[in-house]
């Protein structure tokens, strides 16, 4: 067997969700929202399934969806894309795989920021690349431009940026993004930008896409996710946006991964991008209220809650909370003894992990959050 995968365990998200299912625990581990998503998207997808073609759509995606993605980013982020610069994928993880497989030659180095989505490192290595890590530290997880510059070597070819950043729940500032852009231009690097959380931002903050910074239009792959925009994670509809010379190569990798994506879901997402801006804004406000509800409950239970500017998540610092245990121990005991599933943030590191931070998902119904808070509070009180 391929040694990369033979040594690999089950992803932490599936592992903790399986524990939650087996024990009946409240699942605040894996990131999916309660609720059905926007009805207009569901109805358009269902109608397309019954009334339109269910044969292979174009490999790079339906023209309607590629045009809708380009128009969406023009309205929301001021990016001037053409439909030919959009490649539809079966979720953002497939877009990441296609981007890395298309752009890495054996021995190329890829700069990554830790903590990171756990798919990044195996995909880089399977493509023949070498990950190099820039470490971010709690509680603010800021990007240090000097540390970033120090990580560049003559073999560096790519920067892989998750912004907003899961699990840290931070958004890169304009200054941080400008430093990354300047580095890419100086060293002739391509940036792969995992921006799936671009619409799940809070407190009035707006997402800034790296592709819009000086010098980045021709050297950026922007990855988005309908699953995150519409809280329909099971749809697995994503896309890669890039200038034509890059997009053509990305499409060649995509064609031998999933080749294409269910056409009815593509039509549904196209309809949603054209009509559901109000739903997306309302969902962000609803998620922010869930964040505040969970943060208040956990603080009242005596836990030190870290800031959350975006994503579906907030984190707790165990050491600052006075709990003498690492994040894996906390997560395992909490699911078994209190019936609440979380995710240890050490799972998001490939080397030298932070071991005192645990991630909670807050995009749940109020009653679910309240029940989880009560269980956590009772359990934490028993540890004092």
TrEMBL record:
Its cofactor is pyridoxal 5'-phosphate. The keyword Transferase applies. It catalyses: L-aspartate + 2-oxoglutarate = oxaloacetate + L-glutamate. Its EC number is 2.6.1.1. It holds the Pfam family Aminotran_1_2. InterPro entries: Aminotransferase_I/II_large, Kynurenine-oxoglutarate_AT, PyrdxlP-dep_Trfase, PyrdxlP-dep_Trfase_major, PyrdxlP-dep_Trfase_small. The keyword Transferase applies. One of its GO terms (molecular function) is kynurenine-oxoglutarate transaminase activity. NCBIfam families: PRK08912.1 (NF006488). PANTHER family: FI04487P. Homodimer. Belongs to the class-I pyridoxal-phosphate-dependent aminotransferase family. This is aspartate transaminase. It comes from Sphingomonas hengshuiensis. The lineage of its organism: Bacteria, Pseudomonadati, Pseudomonadota, Alphaproteobacteria, Sphingomonadales.
